[in-house]
Specification:
Blueprint lengths: L1 H9 L2 H23 L2 H4 L2 E7 L2 E7 L1 H9 L1 H10 L6 E7 L17 H13 L5 H12 L3
Helix pairs in contact: 2-5, 6-7
Length: about 140
């Protein structure tokens, strides 16, 4: 599959330029990650390179501020790595939204209910799914 995709992308000038640009951005991402402190590696991503200006997207304001403080040394690092970067522009990306989940429901059972469920579960066959469920319910419940 990837061989067919590479063959398709290699045909035509526009697609070949796009493929070259994507490869250049991947190499820049690797060089950028080698020049960043470990806590920023997952927070910054190369967005584009145009006319010698590298655009980097930072995940959140704190990462963007720290990245802006490092710009002179990062430009020097990228130039030493052989990339034609004259300036770096930092954009603040929105942090990933975490989907909210309601907290799990608490199971409240009285001691009598726990005892009766345990006795009933013991009367079921050992490999019964209902027995496993009842035992788990008794273990996880609170009074």
């Amino acid at each position: 599959m990837s061989q067919l995709l590479h063959r398709f992308l290699g045909q035509g000038d526009a697609l070949a330029r796009l493929q070259d640009h994507a490869a250049r951005l991947r190499r820049l991402q690797g060089a950028l990650e080698r020049g960043l402190p470990p806590q920023l590696v997952g927070q910054c991503q190369v967005a584009n390179l145009k006319d010698g200006t590298l655009t980097v997207s930072a995940r959140g304001g704190a990462a963007a501020v720290r990245l802006r403080q490092m710009l002179p040394s990062l430009v020097e690092h990228l130039v030493r790595a052989g990339h034609a970067v004259q300036a770096i522009k930092v954009k603040v990306g929105t942090p990933e939204q975490v989907q909210w989940r309601p907290p799990p429901a608490e199971r409240h059972l009285s001691n009598d209910a726990k005892d009766n469920l345990s006795k009933f579960a013991q009367s079921l066959p050992p490999d019964s799914p209902l027995r496993e469920s009842l035992e788990r319910l008794v273990r996880r419940s609170r009074q």
